[in-house]
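Ticket closed. Logging final result for cytokinin riboside 5'-monophosphate phosphoribohydrolase.
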Amino acid sequence: MEELLEMITWSQLGIHEKPVGLLNVDGYYNSLLTLFDKGVEEGFIEDSARNIMISATTAEELIKKMEEYAPVHDRVAPRQTWEVDQLL
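Final structure:
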């Protein structure tokens, strides 16, 4: 869970522009996805930030969605040059 949220945060900070994929087999993550959607509904999460995380019920569908991903969210901090050794 911590790693999932960290990757979403890194996207918001501009460290990477990749989608964050969640393979939701048998609805295992439905409650988490509902929590994120409720956060958007209540104004705690920007819709564009919610779209950083992509979910699907099959690996094939998830890969297709990730290939089609284009970042549209606003960064929450000025873009900086991030070096891997700075993040460790």
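Strands lie at 20-23, 53-56. No further action required.
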